[in-house]
Design goal:
2 copies of one chain form a homodimer. Helix content of chain A is 70%, strand content 0%. With 218 residues, chain A is mainly α. Chain A binds a DNA duplex (30 and 30 nucleotides) through α4.
Chain lengths: 218, 218
Amino acid sequence: MPRATFFNLPADKRQRIIEVALEEFAERPYDQASISRVVSRLGIAKGSLYQYFDGKRELFTWLVEEAGRKKLEAVSATPPPTGADLYARLRWLYAQGLLFIAASPRWARVALRSVEPSLDPEISRLRASSEAAAQAFLREQLARGQEEGSVRGDLSLELVVPLVHGLLSEGLMRAFLARAGVTDPLDPAAQSLGREDALAVVDAALSLLERGLRRGAP
Amino acid sequence: MPRATFFNLPADKRQRIIEVALEEFAERPYDQASISRVVSRLGIAKGSLYQYFDGKRELFTWLVEEAGRKKLEAVSATPPPTGADLYARLRWLYAQGLLFIAASPRWARVALRSVEPSLDPEISRLRASSEAAAQAFLREQLARGQEEGSVRGDLSLELVVPLVHGLLSEGLMRAFLARAGVTDPLDPAAQSLGREDALAVVDAALSLLERGLRRGAP
DNA sequence: ATAGCATATGACTACCCAGTCACATCGGAG
DNA sequence: CTCCGATGTGACTGGGTAGTCATATGCTAT
């Protein structure tokens, strides 16, 4: 979505623009992020930024797409477990997700911004489609699980999908960050979070999901 | 938190001010809610509103407190089940919560606004304390459950509390609203949600929580 | 009737924002 | 050396915001 001009820029300048814009859109929700602040931090004229991107929306959506690409790349770095059941697959997947947050908190934060509400109608559409995609993915996984027999059939997916989504998105994130005594991935204290934290949290979450809160072992 | 002047107002005028302010703060997050819009919708001068409330913060925090009172009142209307175990207690509690959302979506929305982030430091403190209170409450419930033997002891509450919070806050809400094909409690289509929906969703959530996703019956 | 207090007003200050555009500068091709 | 397209600029437009305050009006008690 950037204009051609943006890609003609010297790599270091382009990189700096990305970094500053990323920081702005990571720290504030779309409606409160400010192009004026970005250009003033960069020390360039506002008109220049408008040569690189058609507007605030384009800059944001490009950052979100870029964040998605980086996340996909990071998650694909480790190969998924083959032949494993639903719970093992989800364990692997969400562990990768948490590690991405720990490794690239600003990119992860921007990716999360894409499911936040906004007053801008176009951004709202982006939000709706991101949210729908996430739930559709989870639904597919759980449907596969039902076929495998690893997911009980007495609860409709219409109900289960959003519930599990709450557990594995907001819940998992909160549990992960709580390990560092923090509620925001951008908090400097969150840097102390590592692989062990991610695995501990994901193990607990999936054990809870699979077996429930009453009994550990079946 | 309102000034004395506010309570001296004729009841109908006061009521109308509450309604319009409620609508504004229900529809938009704190930072984007606008005092200017409130007064213009009310058709009164901005100075007048500042005679009733010291500022935007005071108006918002008062609405949040008021929402809390109304929610408590609504929840207390039905007596809690006595002698029931953790899951039955939570089932009752969260069903009441969903019914409050269905009955008073704007008040419920404002209550939820209190756990949204804001750039205003004072509002951020309110957010932190609301969030902490919610988790502390859940922690107490789960600790009681562990004593009763209805909650497995192999998972630390530090991990379980935020996970369950994700399931029973965001997850439950999403599942409830999804029944009306909606993602926002203020959406007019959400008015079709009733007691049966609340009970169905809460039953699914608590069954999932208690027994897990793999098997229904123990 | 008048004094004095409570209430109502809206123009005003001092900020912030996205986006535009006429103009300036640069750098390479001819 | 000159031209021209690409790049850079920042003042400007038109909009929004929270909060203030001198002034005006209503209302009540003497």
